[in-house]
């Protein structure tokens, strides 16, 4: 664990890459409980943190508030773990900050390239337009698809089978006056975001973009889950990564959802994994069933969110809490998602989630 004085002295700026080009020590924990009275040291620590390629996670064990924390340093760090709830988006409350910090260190060490790339994206994304940030995310995602860590994940899983053709329309579209109701309709695959469902969803969104008499688009899902993320049957099968990048950014649902955001309400239920929350986060209104669960599990595969999550989710909950979701890969309850602003309202869904 590093002290603030060590951070100010440049300790986190040690060589990032080993002799073979692999990332060394991708995440460093910074102890924020030791008081630093020297403002020059604090300002230098902020500057060093802003320049650092490594992920920097602050940690405090103090349960009597966060008044001892230096706000500019909280801005510069990648996230800060605290033992008490806080509305501050830079802080993540956990039962045991030290144990959680060890978990984050292990997660980053297991996928170091993805962790470091994710940190850079989360820092630079807010300075870009949504379209530019989606391009940056997709280019990074394509790079990681060709990486050793993702190859290791692929080799360890059972041989994939391409998903069968959809037995019915993968997306249902119904106009109700000036409302367009769009329903993901592959319940047998938990509405996994595969090619057929993606193309049908984009076609429905394009319809709304072309018809300004539609004042609202309501997006929901049939079956036990709103969307279980990318279809694993199609995961990593393309070797044509430049084309895959263009499909993600020019034929994916993220950009049309962003363009429609002021007219879109998304109703979530069940598992909302990967794309199942990355895409809804673009909408201006997200309503979740109280039993809904949210996860961003991509880092465990050596990847980062690739359906727009490094763009949409930070714009709702901040880059600090987004990093925590990705590093841990742990489920987030609907109640906490509401507290953080990932969803806007809790409301029970119907029997099929529609």
Give structural attributes:
single chain; 354 residues; alpha/beta; 2-enoyl-CoA Hydratase, Chain A, domain 1; 2 domains; 6-stranded mixed β-sheet; 5-stranded parallel β-sheet
Detailed description of the structure:
With 354 residues, the protein is α/β, with parallel strands linked by helices. The protein has 2 domains: 2-110, no CATH class; 123-346, Alpha-Beta Complex (2-enoyl-CoA Hydratase, Chain A, domain 1), CATH 3.90.226. It contains 13 helices and 14 strands. The strands form 3 sheets. It has a 6-stranded mixed sheet with strand order 6-7-8-9-11-14, covered by helices on one side. A 5-stranded parallel sheet has the order 1-2-3-4-5. Strands 10-12-13 form a 3-stranded mixed sheet. Strand 1, helix 1 (4-8) and strand 2 form a beta-alpha-beta unit. It starts with a strand and ends in an 8-residue tail after the last strand.
């Amino acid at each position: 664990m590093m002290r603030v004085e060590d951070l100010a002295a440049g300790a986190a700026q040690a060589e990032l890459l080993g002799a073979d080009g692999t990332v060394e020590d991708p995440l460093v924990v910074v102890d924020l409980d030791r008081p630093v009275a020297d403002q020059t040291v604090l300002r230098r620590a902020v500057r060093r943190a802003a320049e650092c390629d490594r992920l920097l996670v602050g940690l405090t064990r103090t349960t009597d508030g966060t008044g001892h924390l230096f706000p500019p340093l909280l801005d510069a760090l990648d996230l800060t773990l605290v033992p008490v709830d806080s509305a501050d988006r830079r802080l993540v409350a956990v039962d045991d900050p030290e144990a959680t910090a060890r978990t984050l260190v292990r997660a980053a060490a297991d996928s170091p390239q993805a962790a470091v790339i994710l940190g850079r994206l989360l820092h630079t994304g807010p300075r870009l337009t949504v379209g530019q940030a989606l391009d940056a995310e997709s280019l990074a995602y394509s790079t990681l698809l060709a990486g050793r860590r993702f190859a290791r994940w692929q080799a360890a899983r059972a041989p994939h089978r391409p998903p069968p053709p959809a037995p019915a329309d993968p997306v249902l579209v119904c106009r109700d006056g000036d409302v367009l109701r769009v329903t993901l309709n592959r319940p047998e695959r938990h509405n996994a975001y595969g090619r057929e469902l993606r193309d049908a969803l984009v076609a429905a969104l394009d319809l709304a973009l072309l018809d300004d008499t539609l004042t609202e688009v309501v997006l929901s899902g049939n079956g036990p889950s709103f969307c279980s993320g990318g279809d694993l049957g199609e995961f990593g099968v393309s070797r044509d990564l430049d084309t895959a990048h263009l499909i993600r950014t020019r034929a994916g649902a993220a950009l049309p959802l962003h363009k429609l955001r002021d007219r879109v309400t998304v109703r979530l239920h069940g598992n909302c994994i990967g794309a199942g929350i990355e895409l809804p986060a673009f909408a201006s209104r997200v309503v979740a069933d109280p039993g809904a669960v949210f996860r961003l599990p991509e880092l465990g595969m050596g990847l980062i969110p690739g359906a727009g999550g490094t763009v949409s989710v930070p714009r709702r909950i901040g880059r600090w809490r987004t990093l925590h979701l990705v590093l841990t890969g742990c489920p987030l309850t609907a109640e906490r998602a509401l507290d953080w602003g990932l969803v806007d309202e809790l409301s029970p869904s119907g029997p099929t989630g529609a």
